[in-house]
Amino acid sequence: MKSAVILISGRGSNMQALVEAQPGLEFRAVIANRPEAKGLAWAAQRGLATRTVDHKAYPTREAFDAALAQAIDAFAPDYVLLAGFMRILTAGFIDRYPRSILNIHPSLLPCFPGLHTHARALAAGVKLHGATVHFVTPALDHGPILVQAAVPVLDGDTEEALAERVLAQEHRIYPQAARWLAEGRVEIGTGDVVRIRGSGVSRDSLIAPRDPA
Ligand code: GRF
């Protein structure tokens, strides 16, 4: 069975969705960069190994990333899954785990990389918004896309309402991507375009908007 370590910074609802979905990956540990990350308690309660590598304890990004890599490597995972992990990682760190780090980002990339995606989507007046699971490359919120989910932006939406609608989709697509990894079906082709091997997959990898909840 392929294995993974999950990195979090806060609440950890995506981590919970991943673990609860039992996608066929062995989750070896949950590591947070903030000691107060709420998700740590949930993970510990589930019997998962937990670690904290507090970024504030390190003078540079490089020093933090080296400590983080050491914590990850102790579990020798096949994949590193960023789940609401709010630190920018150095290229040196990312290069240690080629094509092995995944991230979930709350927008339809390449639109709205970075922070405050829901407010920016509302300000831009887009009619579709969503979430993306992608491989991590040194460019922020950029990299081969495994799966996206779109949601409608509704009249009168607040940032919170839109965030909630997107989050529900995050909780569907990250476990889906993890399942594909577990099944060894993820293939990165020319131009960094991801294909999921197996029947019906191109259809599954587009989750179209449904009626809003
Ligand atoms: C999610 O929307 C994630 O995509 C974003 O921050 C939020 C974290 O939520 N980067 P959680 O910690 O997974 O609950």
What does this structure look like?
Helices cover 33% and strands 23% of the residues. The protein has 213 residues and is α/β, with parallel strands linked by helices. It has an eight-stranded mixed beta sheet, with helices on both faces. α1 runs parallel beside α6. The chain is globular, with a radius of gyration of 17 Å. The site of 5-O-phosphono-beta-D-ribofuranosylamine has 13 residues, from α1, β5 and α6.
Which ligands appear in the coordinates?
Answer: 5-O-phosphono-beta-D-ribofuranosylamine
Radius of gyration: 17 Å
Number of helices: 7
Largest sheet: 8 strands, mixed
**Helix-strand topology string:** EHEHEHEHEHEEHEEHE
Spatial separation of the terminal alpha carbons: 36 Å
| Helicity range | 25-40%
β-strand number: 10
State the secondary-structure class: alpha/beta
Strand order, biggest sheet? 3-2-1-4-5-6-7-10
- Mean of the pLDDT scores? 94
Based on CA inertia axes, which overall geometry fits? globular
Low-pLDDT stretches are none
% residues in beta strands: 15-25%
A few lines on this structure:
Helices cover 33% and strands 23% of the residues. With 213 residues, the chain is an alpha/beta fold. The strands form two sheets. Strands 3-2-1-4-5-6-7-10 form an eight-stranded mixed beta sheet, sandwiched between helices. The protein has a two-stranded antiparallel ribbon with strand order 8-9.
Which SSEs are present, and which pair or pack?
Layout: E1 3-8, H1 13-21, E2 26-32, H2 39-45, E3 50-52, H3 61-73, E4 79-82, H4 91-96, E5 101-105, H5 117-124, E6 128-135, E7 145-152, H6 159-182, E8 186-188, E9 194-196, H7 201-204, E10 206-207
Parallel strand pairs: 1-2, 1-4, 2-3, 4-5, 7-10
Antiparallel strand pairs: 5-6, 6-7, 8-9
Helix pairs in contact: 1-6
